[in-house]
Amino acid sequence: MKIDIGGGVRLFVDVEGPEWVPDGPALRQKPTLICLHGGPGFDHSGFKPSFSRLADLAQIIYYDHRGHGRSDERPRAEWTLDTWADDVVRLCDALGIVKPIVLGQSFGGFVAQRYIARHPGHASKVILSSTSPNMVMARKLAMFEKLGGAQARELAQKFWSEPTPASWAAYWAGCRKLYNSTEPRDPDAGQRTLLREDILLHFVGGEKQGMDLLSGLARAQCPVLVMAGEEDPVCPLEDARDMAAALPAQWSQLVSFAGVGHGAWRDDPDAAFAVLRQFIQR
């Protein structure tokens, strides 16, 4: 379905599971988990069907960021972290969601970090999964070289410093296989993704180059779980450690996964979802 979040902006939203469920003689309210997808330029499909494993614990809201996927196209001026972060609040207002659990994966984690800074009292919990607070190129390049040799390093350096259709195509063809340490459990998943390459190149060549989200994390007012794969080339473990250290100590939890790449649930779903379930139930 498409939901108007104000100003004529419509986001594509999909809901998995009810909010209120029978529990003996009463109805019990489950928390609402809002999933912010990666990219930029991708859509929410990467969460499916894996995140159905959490549907017994939470009502799950999947949506495509403004301008992405099945959401309405929007002008380039709106392709900013501030706008995407504020959209989390706009969407919750439109749907009547109070105190959600917000999970940001990769680029969605950039959005979630800006959401923490701009709306620190809005969420009940936040999960930052396989994401980064800034563009520390040396860390990325060292990991790509470790996993794929000099050629992977060269492809990564070219794309992340000079994003063009050609450098993106070469990078994705040569480096995508290095993102994860296991073969895809769902080999058709990539074919289902709706890619907006114009948004991807606009953000990577623009706002991402000078992005620094660390200072905003100090404003967190709820528990924040940082999840990281120790073999993630694009959002290295050191980035996760920086985020965990920047959060208020009483709210910060860091969990790293050995032998795991980008998106822990892709390489070690049992371990990743066990951590997520514990955090949601806490």
TrEMBL record:
Keywords: Hydrolase
AB hydrolase-1 domain sequence ranges: 31-263
Gene Ontology terms, MF aspect: hydrolase activity
Any Pfam family matching the protein: Abhydrolase_1
Top-level taxon in the UniProt lineage: Bacteria
Similarity section: Belongs to the peptidase S33 family.
Protein name per Swiss-Prot or TrEMBL: Alpha/beta hydrolase
Lineage of source species: Bacteria, Pseudomonadati, Pseudomonadota, Betaproteobacteria, Burkholderiales
